[in-house]
Amino acid sequence: MNSSLGIPVSPFFKFPSIMIKHKAIEGGMGIHIYRNFAIEENPGDWILQEVFENSAFVKQLIPENAPLSTIRVITASSADKTNSIKALTAVFRAGRPNESTDHNAIFFNIDMKSGLLSSGTTTKHWNKLGLLNFCHIDKTMWNVYRTHPDSGVQIEGVKWPNLSELIKIVCDAHEKMCADVPLIGWDVALTSKGIMLLELNISCNFFNGKLDRRHYTNFCYDWFRVLDSS
Questions:
Q1: In what residue span(s) does the Alpha-L-glutamate ligase-related protein ATP-grasp domain sit (predicted)?
Q2: With bands split at pLDDT 50, 70 and 90, how would you rate the model's confidence at 148?
Q3: Sheet strand arrangement including 194-201
């Protein structure tokens, strides 16, 4: 828990640096030293944290050897500051086997009212580089998943257990930390130790999340009008 704002950020180590040494490499080789970013004096480039574990609920939805599988929640602030922070979308990123993170995942939209998970999609076709892929249509873009493709577990129709609490946390964090930022994508983990905010993304991806397009269009119009007048 962030001691000053009461926000459940994922815990991080505060010692200056960490050494990682291979068990079998000799002669001073196989040693890596990482300096901590989260220190005030001469910070490094690395945020040092423990590896968190999925909650029991998340574990039942994904393969046994899948990574920490997170939720991307998009929150928005109003341009005229008359409305409170609003959550626009929530997407569960169901991890794949033998991956370190959930970047290669199946994305299941979470209905903002009912908390029910919809059928899933993938963004694998977005990340292909090179001229050969420029005009090539990846068939995976049409795939629809009602179950996890690696475990066969039914995901469509499952109710997310604590969506209202999760939305309250990210909206509260947006208000307290950066109320003047129009749009934020939060990476939220439901871990064995509770809900944790892993990071915020100001240039954020919706990950195929479903949203009220009329509201979003008006939101963009209002913010561009503010920018044009400044």
A1: 37-202
A2: very high
A3: 117-121, 105-110, 86-95, 71-76, 183-191, 194-201
Q: Which helix (H) or strand (E) holds 118?
A: strand 117-121
Task: Give the residues across from 91 on adjacent strands.
Answer: 72, 109
Tokens 């919706």 belong to which residue?
206
**What Å distances lie between residue 147 and 83, 109, 111, 117, 144, CA to CA?**
38, 13, 17, 11, 9
Look up residue 185 and give its DSSP letter.
Answer: E
pLDDT at res. 205: 80
DSSP H or E run through 214 = helix 213-229
Closest CA to 194 of 3, 10, 68: 10
Which residue range forms the structural domain that includes residue 37?
1-50
Say yes or no: 43 and 64 in one domain. no
Tokens coding 42? 């001469």
Regarding whether 69 and 14 lie in a shared domain, the answer is no
Q: How many domains in the chain? A: 2
- The 3-state DSSP class for residue 193 equals coil
Burial 116-152 (b: 16+ CB within 10 A, else e): ebbebbbbeeeeeeeeeeeeeeeeeeeeebeebebbe
Any idea of the CA torsion for 146, 149, 150, 155, to the nearest 10 degrees? -10
Amino acid present at 57: F
